[in-house]
Amino acid sequence: MSREPSALLIDIEWCTGCHACEIAGQVMNNLKADQKCIDVSSGRREVGYRVVLDFIAQPTDLCHLCAPRTAVGKLPACVHHCPPQVIRYGPRRELEAALAAKPHQILFSPSS
Questions:
Q1: What are 45-87's pLDDT values in tens digits?
Q2: Is 25 in contact with 67 (CB distance < 8 Å)?
Q3: Domain boundaries in the chain?
Q4: β-strand pairing of 87-91 with 6-11
Q5: For 41-75, b where at least 16 C-beta lie within 10 A, e where not — what string?
Q6: How far apart are CA 82 and CA 38, in angstroms?
Q7: Who has the most CB within 10 Å: 1, 13, 26, 60?
Q8: At CA 45, angle to CA 41 and CA 48, rounded to 5?
């Protein structure tokens, strides 16, 4: 019996750039300081007379959706520790529908 693939949906419009997801992933997966399973980058842009900072949390090749945690019914570490709750975990098909409803998000599903 095959299981429906899971994914992460990250709302980049509301990411605060706190890096809690990076730290949680590093600690959960015993990664070295230079390794990350999710990477938060920032950029600035001008909107009219305002400067806007954008933060983008992007999973890396090391992300496996915290398989040991999700196998026992827990959320991935990045989702569990995200203060603004902008990272969602669930069935890929369900998250694809949420992405279609609000496109300023990133959908990540590791290749099987």
A1: 898 999 988 899 999 999 999 999 999 999 999 999 999 999 9
A2: no
A3: 6-108
A4: antiparallel
A5: eeeeeeeeeeeeeebebebeeebebbeebeeeeeb
A6: 12
A7: 26
A8: 155
Do 95 and 7 touch, CB atoms closer than 8 A?
Answer: yes
Assess contact for 65 and 74: CB atoms under 8 A: no
**Could you tell me whether strands 50-59 and 87-91 are parallel, antiparallel, or unpaired per DSSP bridges?**
unpaired
Separation CA 67–CA 81 (nearest Å): 16
Question: 108 with 25: CB under 8 angstroms?
Answer: no
| In CATH, 6-108 is 3.30.70.20 | yes
Dihedral angle, C-alpha 7, 72, 17, 107, nearest 10 °: 0
Amino acid (one-letter) located at 88: R
Question: Residue 1 — very low, low, confident or very high, per pLDDT cuts 50/70/90?
Answer: very low
Phi, psi at 105, each rounded to 5°? -140, 165
CA–CA gap between residue 89 and residue 92 (Å, rounded): 9
